[in-house]
Design a protein that fits this description.
The structure is a single chain. This protein is mostly helical. The chain has two domains: about 55 residues, no CATH class; about 120 residues, no CATH class. The protein contains seven helices and four strands, in the order ββααααββααα. Strands 1-2 form a two-stranded antiparallel ribbon. The chain has a two-stranded antiparallel ribbon with strand order 3-4. The N and C termini lie far apart (about 60 Å).
Length: about 210
Amino acid sequence: MYYSGIDLHKDNSFITTINVPDILPEPYKLQMSLLYQQISLLHEQILTLEKSLHPVLVPNDDIERLLWIPGIGKTTAFTIYLEIDGIDRFPSSKHVVSYCRLVPGARNSNKTLRQKSGNKDGNKYLKMAFSDCAVRAIQYYPEFRAFYRRMLRRTNEPVARAIVAKELARIVYYILKSKDNYRGFKGQPISRVKSLQWSRLASPYA
């Protein structure tokens, strides 16, 4: 029997039909083929949802500001904006960071404060969004990469990435609160500026 799957192009578009490896037994070929079909369907549905959000979210000034922050792309900007659901409901950046699950929870007993792992308070989608943004900021921006490496001298990789995610959440808070454009990281300008794409407004650095 012949089964085909879907290959991803570098821009995440499905362009090439590929064959399931012949060395697999027939039952596994069928399973793999079905998985490829599911991936293709989910990808198309994601694109459809994104397109439906564009007329509402792309012209939004807050979305435009978020898009210039290192590590934040179109989908994560949409996620952050919608899940925060109004920055004015947070009194400070600490409240945003806590809501995004980027700090450990705490258990209080008498005068003792203990940190607990596996904190479930807050918004899991914002945690995932900022964690993804942190990885991309570290990968593509020297200033964030240098900051991440400094944190690595004090702790392990997961915690260091979480600290970067926390810094990004703080940046988002101040930008949404002040309605100002992104200026830089830790008082320094960013060496890599994002390109102008689709209907995004001109760079605030221009």
